[in-house]
Amino acid sequence: MDMTRRSFLRDGAMSVCGLFAASSLPAFADAPKWFPKRGRFERLSLACRHVAAGASKPFSILHISDTHLTSAGNDDSEWARKQSACRTKTFGGCQEEALRDSLAWAKEHVDYVIHTGDLIDFQSKANFELVKKYYGANAGFLIGSLGNHEYYRGQPGEDEKDSFKAKSLANIKEAFPFDVSVQSTVLNGVNFVALDNVYGTITEAQMGRLEAEFKKGLPVILFMHCPINTPNILRASKKFWSSANPKAVPDMRGFKPVKPDKNADHKKYAAYLKAQPLLKAILAGHIHVTVEDRFSPSAMEYVVGGNFLFHGQEITIA
Q1: Which of 41, 49, 68, 92 is nearest to 291 (CA)?
Q2: Average of pLDDT values for 27-37?
Q3: Dihedral of the alpha carbons of 46, 50, 51, 52, in degrees to the nearest 10
């Protein structure tokens, strides 16, 4: 046969591609027989960070975010069941598996887990039962904050209003075992402070409580759902969001005025945080991208990718 090297490579590649396309290939992540000696948690994609916070004893955490559980049962509304079918396809269908793998890995390798919101994708009875299940089974080990999807009930134009959030709070407070506005958990002398900023907003009352936490004199690690804009975090977010759909870019301005505090100078809050030497790190999620950037002279901001993609970051704290 008169076959050149180039035609051999071209035709051979086409044949191989046709073979693979015609085959019913398994999803590698779900077929251990293809990699019989792989690690137990090899699907997890974990970044490693270190924070020198002045802890009384070194310890470690697993930071995850954006699991987006999409469960709905027969006693849920028709909207919730339709949402479940649609959004399960959006997030791949392995969200709960990713959460289980993350928690199982954490129990073997770290001291605590921090989840920075969007544990569920929308409000449903089934999703709230999963919230109770995972927080209940991991009490004292799993620490969390809320995301914007914890409030989502499928009301276009209404879901991000304060009045709508107020209507949702009863179900949320009943499901989540922590103060959803501001909470403090001291671990080995480090004050982990959670803040509900699910639409990039913060109120005067929340800021007053946050200032009270700094007055305790302990090193602070702040964790919340929406990142505070820095040049590198904004650049990373735009790469993964705005090119496909400019309207889909997550609101991650950090702090913006919200009623009834519309006249408050919210820029001062970011300036206040940057001036706090006790602030040692900020943990956030929301944009489904793992990225870090310098926030202040004393603190880095660490944003973690989506847990539905098996992403997380291990943070050692000394």
Answers
A1: 49
A2: 56
A3: 160
Triad 214, 216, 220: Cα angle to 5° = 45
pLDDT greater than 70 at residue 38:
no
Instruction: Beginning with the edge strand found earlier in the chain, give each strand of the sheet holding 279-284 in spatial order.
Output: 182-187, 190-195, 220-224, 279-284, 299-303, 291-296
> Tell me, which fold does domain 44-317 have in CATH?
Transcription Regulator spoIIAA (3.30.750)
Neighbours of 186 (CB within 10 A): 13
Q: Are 228 and 210 in contact (CB under 8 A)?
A: no
307 contact partners, CB below 8 Å, separation of at least 6: 64, 65, 66, 67, 68, 95, 98, 99, 102, 115
Q: Omega into 227 within 30° of 0, i.e. cis?
A: no
Residue 316 has pLDDT above 90, yes or no: yes
Mean pLDDT of all residues in 237-264: 51
> Both tokens of residue 163?
């009045």
